[in-house]
Amino acid sequence: MGFLDALFGRTKPVRPDLDQLFAVPSAALTLQAAAGFRPTGLGSVCFAAVEGGAFGEVERQVRALLDADTERGGAPVEASQDSYGYSWLLARHTPEELPELVNDLHAVNSELEANGFGPQLLCSIVAFRNESGQPLGLVYLYKRGTFYPFAPLPGEKRNSPVEIQVKAMLADDLRIESDLSRWFPVWGAPGL
Questions:
Q1: Residue 111 near residue 58, CB atoms below 8 Å
Q2: What is the pLDDT of residues 72-114, one digit of tens each?
Q3: Least packed by Cβ within 10 Å: which of 9, 14, 33, 127?
Q4: How far is Cα of residue 116 from the mean position of the Cα atoms in its chain?
Q5: Are 89 and 109 within 8 A, CB to CB?
Q6: β-bridge mates for residue 183, sequence order
Q7: Within 13 Å and on the Cβ side, how many CA atoms surround 49?
Q8: How far apart are CA 124 and CA 141, in angstroms?
């Protein structure tokens, strides 16, 4: 960053760091101990689909990679599209297999990125739930390289106090997004 960039308040964009996903299992221990949130075994990746054969082939490769778990007793990956036109891939594991789930999410992101489709990646979500049934998603923003908590309530409302508490709990475990205006709601995200 040069002198003029600093003078005019321009900053370098944060580079995605997919290895940040590997911090989720240790953050899960903190969440469970401090707030009673346990992993559900569900995680999803959201991306903007692109028309064309190259993207279609990469998407098939990614699905085949995740579906390989079915041969070892896992559930097949589920593909869906939300009301905004974004594509989702949902991976399923048992709640005890959080590291394997994170590996799957990392593999999907890495495969899309390696094939030149990094700009189409939006976010990845790892789902949790507490004893009272409150869902919580740890959302990884690909373009920011940061996480934020998303605690949806019925009627497209958010449990903001829980989100702020989780932010404080995980400050030492994850790179938390400091700009709260980037904590976008992901209504209807598969797995939440």
A1: yes
A2: 555 667 888 888 889 898 999 999 999 999 999 998 889 888 8
A3: 9
A4: 19
A5: no
A6: none
A7: 17
A8: 7
| Chain position carrying tokens 């605690």 | 151
Q: pLDDT by residue (tens digit) across 137-159?
A: 999 999 999 999 999 999 999 99
Token pair belonging to 25:
């299992």
Contacts of 98 (CB under 8 A, 6+ apart): 24, 25, 28, 39, 41, 126
State both tokens at 123.
Answer: 């976010």
Q: With cut-offs at 50, 70 and 90, classify the pLDDT of residue 8.
A: low
Closest alpha carbon to 191 in 21, 25, 45: 45
Question: How far is Cα 59 from Cα 89, in angstroms, rounded to an integer?
Answer: 10
Beta carbons within 10 angstroms of residue 109's beta carbon: 23
**DSSP secondary structure letters along 10-71:** --PPPPP-GGGGGGHHHHHHHHHHHH--EEEEEEEEEE----SHHHHHHHHHHHHHHHGGGG
Where does the pLDDT of residue 58 fall: very low under 50, low under 70, confident under 90, or very high at 90 and above?
confident
Backbone angles phi, psi at 79, to 5 degrees: -105, 145
